[in-house]
């Protein structure tokens, strides 16, 4: 029997196929989704999309069967990126389901769910209730309705591309050569449509849709998966490079030298651009982004709003504050003009516009947004995450000039450095992020905290 609770995470559904996630679970999830969101009393239909993984079409079809078994209809948009599914949910004002495991290895698949208008479905806003219904229906299958709903197929790729190009017009920029690594993921599907016009020459890497990921995992957060992109940028003399994850909702950027541009720098740059169009607006940033991000927002007349890590939290705060934009350290970027949903493709268009609107190379354009030295996220397996975090707090709380807060895990902030340590939602891991004004200070603080996490002594230099 499938352990339903194990595959329903805080924000989505994710598991190994078929051991943890199979078509029976997907079918039950479709029916439960209709019931929890009261689809029959509202829009009467659900929009469904899926990525290039071999199991995705079958899982999506099973989910659609579950939806139609209740009498609700399905709009099937076929192969799609996750942000294309959000576009469909927003444009059609329908709740949606996207079948993807994003950046996870080939053996995984999952479901990302949203309400009409791409609003989030998180643990406290319906996902837990859906999980409970799925678990029940796997042992006590519900009776279907006499007249099931119908499935309608709709191609929205061109409309999606047109919408993005209306938001960021590249027709007036200087010609750019851009290497794009799709990682055999859905970027190979969406990039050609989005960049069909305009002065951007795309040099494609791994555009063939292949959910077995024959070249490298579609996870640009891991530096080893950027190596091919970096080499190709240098080889062809490109102006910059873009790397998308498997479902193409996240975008990572390297400059003309192949050096990565941090997601915090991208967040800062896009925030400045959005504030120029919408002066005085709020901008969301999660608590792991660089301290430079709220500084830049304030300097350009905006109001920075600090949020927990995770798309359901970001989207909720965007709605509460009417924020124009939001960014996360993981390269998720959210836009009010995109139904407050995350879209790496729209962020990519902003990056190209920022570079193409002047004559300086990308490395110079983004240098002003990189003010501090960061450790990147460091994960350590621990037996008791809560006790370890408590011991870290005991070590730092009360020091002169140091403040602590618990918005998401533990954040310790001093004048010249800060760090955050928080537990994983799914594994016995602690995630550590450190930032400081210089490399030596960052390394010192990083090593001090790691010693507390691992129990290893700090080496004297």
TrEMBL record:
InterPro entries: A-D-PHexomutase_a/b/a-I (IPR005844), A-D-PHexomutase_a/b/a-I/II/III (IPR016055), A-D-PHexomutase_a/b/a-II (IPR005845), A-D-PHexomutase_a/b/a-III (IPR005846), A-D-PHexomutase_C (IPR005843), A-D-PHexomutase_C_sf (IPR036900), Alpha-D-phosphohexomutase_SF (IPR005841). Residues 377-451 form the Alpha-D-phosphohexomutase C-terminal domain. It comes from Kribbella amoyensis. This is Phosphomannomutase. GO terms for molecular function: intramolecular phosphotransferase activity; metal ion binding. Residues 7-133, 159-258, 268-372 form the Alpha-D-phosphohexomutase alpha/beta/alpha domain. Transmembrane segments: none annotated. Belongs to the phosphohexose mutase family.
């Amino acid at each position: 029997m499938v352990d339903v609770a194990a595959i329903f995470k805080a924000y989505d559904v994710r598991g190994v196929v078929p051991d943890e996630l199979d078509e029976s679970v997907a079918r039950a999830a479709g029916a439960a989704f209709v019931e929890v969101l009261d689809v029959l009393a509202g829009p009467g239909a659900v929009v469904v999309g899926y990525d290039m993984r071999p199991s995705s079409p079958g899982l999506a079809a099973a989910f659609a069967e579950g939806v139609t078994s209740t009498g609700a209809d399905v709009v099937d948009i076929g192969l799609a990126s996750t942000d294309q599914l959000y576009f469909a949910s927003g444009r059609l004002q329908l709740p949606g389901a996207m079948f993807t495991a994003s950046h996870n290895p080939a053996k995984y698949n999952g479901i990302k769910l949203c309400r009409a208008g791409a609003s989030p479905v998180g643990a406290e806003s319906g996902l837990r209730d859906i999980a409970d219904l799925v678990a029940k229906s796997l042992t006590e299958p519900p009776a279907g309705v006499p007249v099931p709903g119908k499935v309608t197929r709709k191609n929205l790729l061109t409309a999606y591309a047109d919408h993005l190009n209306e938001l960021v017009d590249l027709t007036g920029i200087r010609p750019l050569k851009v290497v794009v690594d799709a990682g055999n993921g859905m970027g190979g599907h969406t990039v050609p449509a989005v960049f069909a016009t305009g002065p951007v020459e795309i040099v494609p890497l791994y555009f063939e849709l292949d959910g077995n990921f024959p070249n490298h995992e579609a996870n640009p957060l891991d530096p080893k998966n950027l190596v091919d992109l970096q080499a190709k940028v240098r080889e062809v003399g490109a102006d910059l490079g873009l790397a998308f994850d498997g479902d193409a909702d996240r975008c990572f950027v390297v400059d003309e030298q192949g050096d990565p541009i941090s997601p915090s720098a991208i967040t800062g740059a896009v925030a400045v651009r959005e504030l120029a169009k919408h002066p005085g607006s709020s901008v969301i940033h999660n608590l792991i982004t660089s301290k430079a991000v709220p500084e830049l927002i304030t300097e350009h007349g905006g109001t920075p709003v600090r949020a927990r890590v995770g798309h359901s939290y970001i989207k909720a705060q965007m709605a509460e504050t009417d924020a124009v934009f939001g960014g996360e350290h993981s390269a998720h970027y959210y836009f009010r003009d995109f139904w407050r949903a995350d879209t790496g493709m729209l962020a990519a268009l902003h990056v190209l516009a920022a570079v193409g609107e002047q004559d300086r190379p990308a490395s110079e354009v983004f240098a002003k947004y990189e003010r501090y030295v960061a450790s990147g996220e460091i994960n350590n397996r621990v037996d008791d995450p809560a006790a370890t975090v408590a011991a870290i707090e005991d070590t730092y709380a009360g020091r002169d000039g140091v403040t602590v807060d618990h918005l998401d895990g533990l954040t310790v902030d001093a004048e010249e450095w800060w760090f955050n340590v928080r537990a994983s939602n799914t594994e016995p891991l602690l995630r550590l992020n450190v930032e400081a004004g210089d490399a030596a200070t960052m390394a010192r603080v990083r090593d001090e905290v790691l010693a507390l996490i691992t129990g290893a002594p700090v080496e004297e230099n």
